[in-house]
Amino acid sequence: MAINIPDYDGKAVTWTTNAEGKMVLDSLRAMKNDTALGLADSGIALYGYSGGGSATIHTAELRQTYAPDVRLLGAAFGAAPTNLTALLNYATSPEPGLTGTVNFGAWIGLVMWSRAYPELAHRVEELLTPEGHQILADIQHRCYATLALTGAYRPINAYLKDPDTKLEALPEFANVLADNSIGHHIPDIPLLWWHGMWDELIPPSIILPTVDDYWNRGANLRFYTVPAPEHIVNAVLGWIPATAWTSAILRGLPPGPTFKADYQPLPPGFPGA
Q1: Residue 272: its pLDDT value, please?
Q2: How far apart, in whole angstroms, are the C-alpha atoms of residue 94 and residue 206?
Q3: What distance in Å separates the CA atoms of residue 234 and residue 237, rounded to the nearest whole number?
Q4: Which residues lie closer than 8 Å to 145 by C-beta, 6 or more apart?
Q5: Contacts of 191 by beta carbon, 8 Å cutoff, 6+ apart
Q6: Nearest alpha-carbon partner for 199 in 232, 237, 234, 230
Q7: What is the pLDDT of residue 120?
């Protein structure tokens, strides 16, 4: 098997946008078209978690319209942000305990969406206090890990000139969030999707409506809830069945039956169960 690691953030470092999916598909096309690799007719499986899960599910949704020549066998992903409107609402306000770390995600969103949509940058300038501008300037050149330390427990609402402002309700933000949320296209490939029963960064309540929508619209879906808490823990625990399943479909085995197991264990006999 060959492994392709795409730069799905791109030169501008985008995040949770449709552009991620296009960049992954561009990368896969480049891989296929490099005759020295001999992979032109190879089937491809996608894998990603959290931010990588976002890129994975965007890729799966956009394949039919953007790159129908890329042969995807399936996609495994976990903790993927889906409804960005609900996620921003959750991440911009004070949260207790470990959930307060989610605040850094809203700061990432503010930076990345402003880069992808320059019209937002001016609006952000107008909304933030001087202290908010200092935080925004500080995280512009940080890696995600140190950015997380800077933005955790600092809800954006506390750094707005009007703390009652709901960013997700402003038209310019609302349009960007809606356009880049998951669910515009149902993938035509087998999917394995998992989420933790409790995730401090992306609560199940935010993603389950999208899971239900996928299921009701006939997605080739296998969804289960990892019976353990915490975002990073579930990256590790979900890796085991996801890797077993990905290996199986790459070897030509069937993807197995569809199921939607909210807060239930994996079905008996499923790879990695």
Answers
A1: 54
A2: 17
A3: 5
A4: none
A5: 60, 74, 75, 76, 77, 214, 219, 220, 221, 222, 223
A6: 230
A7: 87
> Cα(255)–Cα(91) distance, rounded to whole angstroms?
35
φ/ψ of 254, rounded to 5, equals -65, 150
CA torsion, ordered 136, 140, 144, 145, to nearest 10 deg: -70
Task: Please state the length of the chain.
Answer: 273
Nearest to 231 by CA among 206, 256, 257: 206
User: What is the reported pLDDT for 176?
Assistant: 93
Classify residue 87 by burial, with Cβ atoms within 10 Å: 0-12, 13-18, 19+.
Answer: buried
User: Which residue type, as a one-letter code, is found at position 216?
Assistant: N
- List, as one string, the DSSP characters of 123-143: HHHHHB-HHHHHHHHHHTT--
Q: What's the distance, Cα to Cα, between the start and end of the chain in Å?
A: 23
Give the Cα-Cα-Cα angle 43, 47, 50 (nearest 5 degrees): 160
CA distance 189 to 195: 19
Q: What is the rounded CA–CA span in Å between residue 220 and residue 99?
A: 32
In the prediction, which pLDDT does 15 show?
A: 86
pLDDT beneath 70: ranges in the chain: 265-266, 270-273
List, in sequence order, the alpha helices (H) in 70-203. Answer: 84-91, 103-116, 118-127, 130-139, 144-151, 171-180
Rounded Cα distance, 257 and 222, in Å: 8
pLDDT number for residue 267: 72
Beta strands across the sheet bearing 191-198: 44-49, 72-78, 191-198, 221-229, 259-261
Spell out the long-range contacts of 210-216 with Cβ–Cβ below 8 A and sequence spacing 24 or more. Answer: 210/82, 210/83, 210/181, 210/182, 210/183, 211/82, 211/260, 211/262, 212/260, 213/183, 214/183, 214/186, 215/260
Q: Any residues with CB less than 8 A from the CB of 177 and at least 6 apart, and which?
A: 84, 85, 88, 168
